[in-house]
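Hey L., structure's done. Input below.
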Amino acid sequence: MTLGDGKERAISLFWADGQLVVTSVTKGDESSVRTNDSIAVRYVPHPTRKGYYRKEVVVNGSTVKRLDIYKESVPKSVEVEYLFNMHTHPKAIDGSFSFFFFARC
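Output:
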């Protein structure tokens, strides 16, 4: 997509309580792109299965993953970690492409 319009694009990756989550692509302009992704994991009582909870992974306000979990398997604490952000750069003068990778250490 960057090749087509020359705009930078980015994604973020998170580790959300045992699952890898990749955000949707964010489009920037010709010289930058900024992501502001939010992620949450919640366990709610299952609406129809007694003794089960529903694990929901919510990215930017939308549920992106849903999994039924037996109540005894619901963790005591939820682990959500930002892993990294990756974004493209438009085509360079020499015709090459590059990308930027930012990881929290």
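The helical segments are 2-5. The chain has one domain: 2-103.

-- N.
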